[in-house]
Amino acid sequence: MADRPPQLAGHGGPRTLADIDADSLAHCFGFLGIRDVANLAMTCKPLCRVAYSDSVWHRLFSREQWPHLSVSSGAPGVREQYLARHMALHQLKFDDPLEIYFNTTYSIPASHILLDRNAILLAQGSSIQRFQVNSSEIKDQELLTAHGARITCMRLFPIEETSLFRNVMQYEDNVLVTSSSDRTIRLWWKGRSQRCFRGHNGPVTTLADTLLGNSGSKVLASGGEDCTVRLWSVGASGKQHPLLTYHGHEKPLSFLTVARHRTSLLVSISRDSRVRVWDTSASSSSSLSSCVGMTSVSGSPVALKCYDTLCYVAAGASVTAIDLRTMRKAFTVALHGPKLYSFEMLPSKWLICSGGQDKALLWDTRKNQENPEPVAELELNHNRVTFLHMDPYKVVAGGPFGYKVNVWETGTGCLANSLDCRVPGETEEIAGLSAMAVDGCRIVTGGCSEVPGFVYYRDFSNCCVPSSLVDDNTGSKFWESDLPGV
After folding, report:
1. How far apart, in Å, are the Cα atoms of 46 and each of 31, 115, 232, 290?
2. What is the Cα–Cα distance from 158 to 450, expressed in whole angstroms?
3. Which SS3 state, helix, strand or coil, does residue 21 take?
4. Containing H/E element for 210?
5. Dihedral of the alpha carbons of 225, 227, 233, 237, in degrees to the nearest 10
6. In terms of DSSP bridges, do strands 137-144 and 151-158 run parallel, antiparallel, or are they unpaired?
7. Which residues in the chain land under pLDDT 70?
8. What is the pLDDT of residues 271-319, one digit of tens each?
């Protein structure tokens, strides 16, 4: 059935797309984007042949993505050239990115940075600055100053999941949510604070990574130094006091994450490394009945992430997987002594990455779970890997004691690039990174300058000059020729 082309209604009996010549189909495909072309390629073999044809991919390459470049006339085919360039750009393998470096309003290091489409969002103390990037310069700047104390966490959520959503033109928009030591949480949109949530009896220390609940009844979770977890409605207007308050932790909250197999389950960890699971759909407001699981790990919490029925807890010098159905330890994912500083995961590839002193380590979660061994060692000499990003193309790492950010291929562990994040002409005797954000082909770093508010933006989307780092043996050590499943 998968190889039978769809039928078309017409005179003289049923016809199929196979009755249309390939040139006509390729012409029709010329009006589609790459996602639509990829989807059609999976429908049947006749459409797959057209979708993979050079004429279709030549348009995608030369007219849609990179009009300033020409397609090579030799092997490989145009589709292969497109995919190779797409991967190289997302691995930041070039020396000529668009570069913008600038000083912010305040001479304070950026503590948090986010990328939201063409905007850079950064927190400095109690203030947020939003910079709009247009072409090769910063066009607009907004200063958001409603908080009265240091910002502790920043999240982006789709506007369609909040009460601010009005029409389909907003589908790609996000709202910014921030927590602060002033005991409040604020929801920002269009340059101002739209909602202010009050209820914590101390600084708000963390926000959940995603919203809880189903469409139309989305709920935000927060944790604070008052040792409570509180739930807030973002799907209904007017409600700015907590819907529920959960007690049970004895120390301030460190991290919150939402279970992936049940979006009503919230996982929390406090500074004493005690883990609790809350069923936010429970009809009772009692903390005792809402808490459906408890456990603990050793060491100070570093990160908390969920995938399927497992919760990955990075603490001390290890990453432990906990089965949320039984609250028992499933296996140890990573052992990274003497201390972990960061943790990221790529569940679709069965990979996690841990950041420690002078290096990051890649782990395959399907490997030996009694005594796990890393599959790759990614070196960041003389630095502490506190800033870590991981996606299907690359691993990016930096730290507070160096001005270099290294980039490695996720699939091989080979060093793809090493980025100098200093102001041109700056000496080496400077502090390292204060914050970092990576999104696709773009990277933003804060710090690495005598001026504390310095920010460095790079966009690799239209690069042409390949990186000079071509030695695959530099900066990584691989125990296998390739990562399984990548």
Report:
1. 18, 40, 51, 54
2. 36
3. coil
4. none
5. -40
6. unpaired
7. 1-15, 17-18, 74-75, 169, 215-216, 236-239, 283-288, 368, 470-486
8. 999 999 999 987 665 666 789 999 999 999 999 999 999 999 999 999 9
Is the separation of the CB atoms in 152 and 181 below 8 Å? yes
How many other C-beta atoms are found inside a 10 Å radius of the C-beta of residue 83? 13
Report DSSP letters for 350-385, one per residue: TEEEEE-EEEEEEEETTS-SSS---SEEEEEEEEE-
pLDDT, tens digit, for every residue of 144-188? 999 999 999 999 999 888 888 777 767 788 999 999 999 999 999
DSSP string for 276-328: EEEETT-S---HHHHEEEEEE-SS-EEEEEEETTEEEEEETTEEEEEETTTTE
Q: Is 57 helix (H, G, I), strand (E, B) or coil?
A: helix
86 touches 38 (CB < 8 A): no
* Sequence-separated (6 or more) residues with CB below 8 Å from residue 350: 364, 365, 366, 484, 485
CA-to-CA separations, 273 to 14, 25, 289, 294, 305, in angstroms, rounded:
66, 59, 21, 11, 14
C-alpha span between 339 and 322 (Å, rounded): 20
Whole-angstrom distance, CA of residue 191 vs CA of residue 121: 11
Name the token pair of 268: 């929390």
Pairing of strands 351-355, 229-233: unpaired
Q: Output the six-digit token pair for 209.
A: 């990574």
CA 213 vs. chain centroid, Å, equals 21
User: How far is the C-alpha of 366 from the C-alpha of 63, rounded, in Å?
Assistant: 42
Closest CA to 377 of 342, 353, 400, 403: 353
In a 3-state reduction of DSSP, which class is residue 1? coil
- The one-letter amino acid at 319: V
Non-local (6+) Cβ contacts of 432 within 8 A are 383, 398, 399, 400, 401, 402, 403, 447, 448
Residue 255 in 3-state DSSP? strand
The span from the first CA to the last CA of the chain, in angstroms, equals 29
- Distance CA(394)–CA(413), nearest Å, equals 9
In angstroms, the CA 309 to CA 330 distance is 11
CA dihedral sign, ordered 242, 248, 253, 254: negative
Going 305 to 311 to 315 to 319, the CA torsion angle's sign is negative
Amino acid identity at 375: V
Residue type, 194: Q
For 56, the enclosing helix (H) or strand (E) is: helix 54-58
